[in-house]
Specification:
By secondary structure, this protein is mostly beta strands. It has one domain: Neuraminidase. It has 3 helices and 25 strands. Strands 2, 3, 4, 5 and 6 form a 5-stranded antiparallel β-sheet that branches. Strands 7, 8, 9, 10 and 11 form a 5-stranded antiparallel β-sheet that branches. Strands 18, 19, 20, 21 and 22 form a 5-stranded antiparallel β-sheet that branches. A hairpin with a 5-residue loop joins strand 2 and strand 3. It is globular. 42% of the residues are buried. The N terminus is likely disordered.
């Protein structure tokens, strides 16, 4: 699988426009007293903090500090060729201005940031070179340790997780197992690596009913490994270019048949980068959906065009949030 920016933006640029209805996505950030908006988030997706976190800038993939008060995500500019990791702190009822992590680079893309369940480790994917890296341009998994409130210089995870292919979207569970996707076998598949005796073990591929002939990627796994939400690309029976699927753990590397999370979650555009908030109650994901009628609105006047293009309604990749009802998907058939 290629750079996730290429995947997300490439699909978005070639896709037809979405017919997603506006629904109940208007929010007043001034009334919020918690980043997850506990009392008013519905069971249908709404835009996550529009014009504060979700903005006119393309961004994908989210992760939170354990207390839920810092959001981390990947920000990207296709025109400038910049892909990096940013964060925002939630203070006094609203998110502050975005900042970059200290080790961001203009020339080396960094993406797919995830914070470990204990909050002490940042995991991400980058094409940065290191001693022992496979030849050629590829992405591998790196980590940065949090010490005295600062993220330290990152280090590569290296072998045996690293390969001559690309590794993306690392998610760590409570026992330090890391789930990720890799295209080392040609197609993008999901793998996990156990942490044993102070080192990561050879990656194990998830079963064939999870890894199909399509591309699977962006797997969020619950900290207790009870469920997995992942992305499947170009599924003929899907709703869009990429859809979210959910599966429940039934044993060691034994998972229930994955279920498409449905049209209320998935649009006819890109839907990906799933993340479940630390309290387990809310699903946040990246989507390229476009509001119904927004294209016509842009040509009513140049002023409208400029206003919309400078807002989160401009079709940029952004974040949506909804309450997560796991029982809704249990027992469903593919």
């Amino acid at each position: 699988m290629r750079n996730p920016l290429i995947l997300l933006l490439g699909i978005m640029l070639c896709a037809a426009c979405s017919n997603e209805k506006k629904g109940s996505e208007d929010q007043n950030p001034e009334t919020l007293n918690h980043p997850f908006k506990l009392d008013s988030i519905p069971h249908k997706p709404i835009k996550f903090h529009p014009e504060m976190v979700s903005t006119e800038i393309d961004k994908f993939n989210t992760s939170f500090s354990p207390d839920g008060n810092i959001i981390y995500y990947t920000v990207a500019s296709q025109k400038l060729g910049v892909t990096g990791i940013a964060f925002q702190k939630f203070e006094n009822g609203q998110f502050g201005s975005p900042e970059f992590v200290p080790f961001i680079s203009a020339d080396i893309p960094m993406a797919d940031v995830q914070i470990s369940p204990d909050g002490n480790l940042m995991l991400f994917s980058t094409s940065k070179d290191y001693e022992g890296k496979s030849e050629g341009f590829n992405f591998n998994l790196w980590t940065s340790e949090l010490k005295d409130g600062e993220w330290l210089e990152p280090k590569p995870l290296g072998m045996p997780i690293a390969s001559s292919g690309n590794e993306f979207y690392p998610v760590m569970t409570n026992n330090k197992t890391i789930y990720f996707n890799s295209d080392k076998e040609g197609n993008s598949n999901l793998y996990f690596s156990r942490f044993k005796d102070g080192a990561y073990q050879d990656p194990i591929r998830l079963p064939d009913h999870i890894n199909s002939e399509r591309k699977e990627a962006d797997a969020f796994v619950a900290a207790d490994k009870s469920f997995i939400i992942f992305v499947r690309v170009d599924e003929p029976d899907g709703f869009g270019n990429s859809d979210l699927y959910i599966s429940f753990r039934e044993g060691e590397n034994i998972w229930s048949n994955p279920v498409n999370m449905g049209q209320e979650v998935n649009s006819n555009q890109i839907d990906g980068s799933p993340y479940v908030t630390p309290d387990g109650n809310y699903l946040i994901f990246t989507t390229g959906r476009i509001l119904d009628g927004i294209k016509n609105k842009t040509v009513e006047s140049y002023k409208d065009f400029k206003t919309i293009m400078s807002s989160s309604d401009n079709g940029s990749l952004n974040f949506y949030i909804m309450k997560l009802d796991l029982d809704k998907y249990k027992g469903q058939k593919l």
